[in-house]
Each structure stands twice: as C-alpha cells, then as structure tokens.
C-alpha cells in the first residue's frame, strides 16, 4: 500500500510509546497503534471481567491489571481503552493503557509491551500515521504540534483554526483554480488546432490568474500576525541602571521574578519570561542597565543587553521621571531608533524633571507612557500600548484562514512567483508550454503544504520535531 508515492515500509509494525510527560502525575499513558495492538495488550493485561480485549467493543474502557507473564508479577492497576480502526487517532487499532502516574509503572508497562511484539515509536510517528492513513492532511498534522505548544488563547485559536482544516481549505481552493487554468493551457498544447489563437483568450486567462494572485497575496499577508501568535515576540526592557526595569518586569509578570534593589547594577544578566499580553505570547526580557562600568560582571551583563536589543522585536525603554533625560538615555534611544518601541517614563509619583513633549520628541516615533511602578499606576495603559505597537501593521484579527508556519510561507512565496511569471509570459505572448511549467510548479508548491505532493525527507523533518508518543 502506498500514499503520496511513499512506501509504507514500517506501517505494518505495531508501535508503542509513553504519551504523557515523564514524572509524577495523576496518570501515565502507554499508547499502542497497529494491527497487533489488541493481541499485544492481551498478553500482559488481565481484565477484572476475565475477558480478552479482543472481545470488547470499540471505544470502551476496562479495568484490570498489567502482569508480567514470565515473572507472574503484577506491575500496576490500570484502565485500558480500546479504539478499533478506523475510528481512532491513527485510523489503526489503538490501545491506551492508563497507568498510575510515575516513572516506573509506565516504564515497566512499556517494556512489557515492547517485549510482547511492539516496536518503539519514533518521534511524531502516531501523527505521521494519521497523515499517511488519510485522517488529516499535512498542514493539519503540523497544527497539532502548535496546539501542544500554544502559550496563549490566541496562539491556541490560530493552531485550532489550522487543525480544523481552514487553512487547508483555502490552499486547496487556490490550487484547484491553478489546476483549472493549467488544464486549459495544456489543452491548447495538446490540441492546438482547437485553440489556434491563444491571445483571444488572454483576457479571460489574465482574470483567472489575477484572482489567484490576489488569493495568494491575501493569505501571505496573514503570516506576520499568524507567526506572532505562534512564535510570540521578543520584548526587551532596557534603560540606565536603577530606572525601575526589574520592578516593572515583576509587575508585568504579576510575580516577583527579578531581584529588586536600590543599588544600581543589581541585574547583571538577562532574565527572560513569557507573558500573555492580550492573547499575544511575549518573551519579556529584563536586561542589565546600560552604562559605563569597570566591573567585569556588569560589563558582561551590558554586552548581553546589547545582544538582546539587536534581536528585539520591540524595545521598552524605561526612563526615570525624577532624574530627567541625560546623554545615557539619549544613547539608549538611539540604539533602538529603528525598532518598534514604547518609551516608559517611570516614577511619575515623584517630582518630575521630564516633560512628556521632550520624551515624545526623543522617542523617534515611539509611544510614550507615564507610569508609577511603586504605586502600580497606568500599567494597564502600558500593556495596551505594547499590544498596539506589536500589532501595528499586522493582519486584522478574525481572518478566517491564518498562516503561521514559515514552511507554508516559503511555499506560498514560490507559488506567487510562479503565478506572476505566468502572467508576464501570457502578456508577452509566450507559448502555452512555458505557461504550463510555471502553473505546474505553483500547484506543486501548494500541494507540498497539504501533503498532496510530498517526499520522505520532508516528512522526516516535519515529524521529527514532534515528541515521542504523539
């Protein structure tokens, strides 16, 4: 049996793995998938009802014990779930053994399963089988790892949108349009006597090509926002020593994560944490205060601050309202002049030396927000401003199909280039054979997104990113 021209050399094996994280917990799940799943599980499972698993109906759960048949030793009390093909995650017979949470129970149960005829699953192999058996397409399979890794409700929503097939539907619609255009072009190549004058059909063809180009461009336009929801953004808190960066970090995290002291230079390393900012995953980094210093450790911290600033998607420049703006502040603002930024004027509860107009002028396009970390004033306004700056110029939330995967973006870019080439060739009066090559390449690129056209090495690369047991 083959699918997508891929030999299913290991598809007949029954595979097994622990599908829950290693460590103490409520349960640990040992999962099996393949034609021998029930038979293998029967060799080590003793049902409290005295019946064999093969006699149970699909999608039923049964209490019993895992027993080492050679040592006659009880390993654990378990619940076993039976899911028969094709109504399972992989469309194969699936058995899930729910052990007590912990390392030894799951480890010994898996060991017995492997000794009884199963093979240890490779990373992502359960999901790979779901794809190869036609339950999901490749874009949906990739969405599963995004669901697992989702850090906010927003990133989960984007991942679920893709898992439910919305992106695949749009890709397939565009691909079908390209194939329709290609079929007309190929017909003119095969039967030139029926289409003696291609230019007469040029306007109709151009209209179809323009529609496809617009569809691809619209999908590409969702990538920047989609990747923000998937990957998050890197936001750096920067400023002179003792302006309140660490206190602000703790306030945004809503917990005491960073040591706070009135002594300048307390933070000597970059401290990174994830926060949820209106549904956006934000990697927030508190950096060492940037200044001239002879202290070796502090100099290393400042060097790391500069490195982080170079990578930052958004800079949060913190100024001290009570001390005014000096050359050090201006130098830091100059360092981030080309980045999206928010200028924070902290210690607004103290007598001020900073005029907001001066801060706005020096911010070089960045937003300015006055806050008091000590009194927790205007923090929500700062969070809103940060979110607005992050979303500036990105897609409007609520788009039905959102692209967040760099692999998909690269393939769509290739398809767009092919379609623009087709358009140019058609206007130049190139022969249909030239148009057909680009149309075929565009359709192939889109097929690589959903898995209609795929190769072993791409599959290995994609599923190799999954954890074992998924």
Describe the structure using short key phrases.
about 475 residues; alpha/beta; Gyrase A, domain 2; Four Helix Bundle (Hemerythrin (Met), subunit A); Rossmann fold; six-stranded mixed beta sheet; 16 helices
Overview of the molecule:
This protein has helices at 37-42, 103-115, 125-132, 138-149, 153-163, 166-190, 202-221, 223-231, 245-253, 296-311, 327-335, 356-362, 379-391, 406-427, 432-450, 456-463; strands at 2-3, 6-7, 15-18, 27-33, 45-47, 60-68, 73-83, 94-100, 119-120, 233-239, 271-277, 280-286, 314-320, 340-346, 367-370. It has three domains: 2-137, Gyrase A, domain 2 (2-Layer Sandwich), CATH 3.30.1360.120; 153-222 and 401-450, Four Helix Bundle (Hemerythrin (Met), subunit A); 231-391, Rossmann fold, CATH 3.40.50.300. Residues 1-9 and 259-268 have low confidence and may be disordered. By secondary structure, it is α/β, with parallel strands linked by helices. The strands form three sheets. The protein has a seven-stranded mixed β-sheet with strand order 5-6-7-8-4-3-9. It has a six-stranded mixed β-sheet with strand order 11-12-10-13-14-15, with helices on both faces. It has a two-stranded antiparallel sheet with strand order 1-2.
């Amino acid at each position: 049996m083959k699918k997508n021209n891929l030999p299913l050399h290991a598809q007949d094996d029954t595979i097994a793995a622990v599908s829950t994280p290693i460590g103490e917990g409520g349960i640990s799940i040992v999962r099996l998938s393949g034609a021998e799943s029930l038979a293998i599980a029967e060799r080590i499972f003793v049902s409290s009802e005295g019946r064999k698993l093969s006699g149970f109906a699909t999608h039923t759960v049964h209490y019993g014990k895992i027993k080492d048949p050679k040592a006659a030793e009880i390993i654990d009390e378990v619940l076993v779930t039976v899911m028969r093909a094709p109504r399972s995650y992989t469309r194969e017979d699936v058995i899930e053994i729910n052990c007590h949470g912990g390392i030894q129970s799951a480890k010994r149960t898996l060991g017995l399963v492997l000794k009884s005829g199963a093979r240890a699953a490779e990373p992502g192999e359960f999901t790979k089988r779901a794809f190869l058996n036609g339950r999901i397409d490749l874009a949906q399979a990739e969405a599963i790892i995004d669901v697992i890794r989702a850090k906010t409700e927003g990133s989960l929503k984007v991942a679920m949108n893709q898992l439910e097939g919305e992106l695949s539907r749009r890709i397939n619609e565009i691909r079908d349009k390209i194939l329709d255009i290609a079929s007309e072009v190929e017909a003119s190549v095969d039967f030139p006597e029926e289409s003696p004058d291609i230019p007469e059909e040029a306007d109709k063809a151009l209209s179809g090509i323009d529609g496809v180009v617009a569809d691809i461009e619209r999908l590409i336009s969702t990538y920047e926002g989609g990747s923000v929801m998937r990957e998050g953004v890197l936001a750096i808190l920067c400023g002179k020593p003792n302006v309140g960066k660490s206190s602000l970090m703790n306030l945004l995290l809503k917990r005491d994560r960073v040591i706070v002291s009135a002594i300048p230079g307390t933070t000597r390393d970059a401290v990174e944490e994830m926060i949820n900012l209106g549904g956006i995953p934000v990697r927030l980094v508190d950096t060492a205060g940037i200044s001239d210093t002879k202290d070796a450790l502090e100099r290393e911290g400042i060097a790391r601050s500069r490195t982080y600033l170079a990578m930052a998607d958004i800079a949060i420049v913190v100024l001290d309202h009570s001390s005014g703006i000096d050359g050090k502040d201006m130098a830091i603002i100059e360092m981030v002049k080309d980045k999206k930024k928010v200028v924070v004027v902290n210690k607004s509860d103290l007598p001020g030396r900073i005029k907001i107009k001066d801060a706005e002028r020096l911010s070089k396009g960045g937003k300015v927000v006055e806050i008091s970390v000590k009194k927790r004033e205007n923090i929500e306004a700062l969070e809103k401003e940060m979110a607005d700056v992050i979303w500036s110029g990105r897609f409007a939330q609520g788009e039905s199909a959102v692209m967040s995967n760099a692999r998909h973006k690269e393939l769509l870019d290739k398809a767009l280039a092919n379609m623009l080439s087709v358009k140019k060739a058609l206007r130049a009066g190139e022969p249909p054979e030239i148009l057909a090559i680009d149309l075929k390449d565009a359709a192939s690129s889109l097929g690589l997104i959903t898995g209609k056209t795929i190769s072993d090495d791409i599959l290995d690369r994609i599923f190799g990113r999954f954890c074992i047991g998924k």
